[in-house]
Amino acid sequence: MTITVEIRRDRTRHRGLGQVLLAGAAAAGAACLVGPWLAESTGLLVLTGAFEYRWPSFLVAAVLLGAAVRLLTDRPAVRVPVIAVCAVAVVGAVWFRLVLFPMVGAAWEETERTAAPGGVGRYVVVEEGAALIDPLWRVSVVDGSGPGAHIWRVAHFNGDTADGALSRVTWSGPDALVLTTAEGGATTLRLDPRTGKPERRLSRP
């Protein structure tokens, strides 16, 4: 009798944990689908850092779903196919991160950070990366601090040509940036004085 009660308790605990894992898998799947869009539309720095790439949330969703199915059902017809698909998804995500992503992703590295004049609580960030053999630059403006800080993508440069190679980024005031290419061409981008959002995005070439 005692053994039966313990088995039932274990099953209840496993089922409860499985339901929690299933909810986590659903949340991670939703984050994979709408996270990047939400980060882009709101500009919140915390969301951009979490959802700039889809593969982490996809990997979490696949792991949690496989673990949840393992705990929630003993039916081989359901359990085996779902866990197999999740395993393939996990292997695919890891392969993408370790093999494909370094070739197609820029692997951005921050090289410069300069505060805006006037003490407005804003700074510009310059990041460098590479697409195969072409050098890349990405310029962003961060406005504010803490959970409410916003990040706005300002410009993207591809150094395949001299006109696309970023040479210098300077402030011409608290609400304006001057971006200069290797050829000497300079472009001024104005920012919203209240939010720091650029009036437009610059892409070269």
Shape: elongated
Sheet-strand content, in percent, reads 25-35%
* Uncertain stretches: none
Structural class: alpha+beta
Mean pLDDT: 88
Order of helices and strands: HHHHEEEEEEEE
In DSSP terms (H or I, runs of 4 or more residues), the helix count works out at 4
Give the N-terminus to C-terminus distance in angstroms: 76 Å
- Sheet having the most strands: 5 strands, mixed
Helix content: 40-55%
The strand line-up of the biggest sheet is 1-2-3-4-8
Radius of gyration over all CA atoms, rounded: 24 Å
Number of strands: 8
Produce a short descriptive summary.
With 205 residues, the protein is of the alpha+beta class. It has 4 helices and 8 strands. Strand 6 and strand 7 form a beta hairpin.
Description:
The protein has 205 residues and is of the alpha+beta class. The strands form 2 sheets. It has a 5-stranded mixed sheet with strand order 1-2-3-4-8, covered by helices on one side. A 3-stranded antiparallel sheet has the order 5-6-7, with no helix packed on it. Helix 1 (2-42) packs across helix 2 (45-51), helix 1 (2-42) runs antiparallel to helix 3 and helix 3 (55-72) packs antiparallel against helix 4 (76-104). It contains 4 helices and 8 strands, in the order ααααββββββββ. Strand 1 and strand 2 (122-131) form a beta hairpin. The mean pLDDT is 88. The N and C termini lie far apart (76 Å).
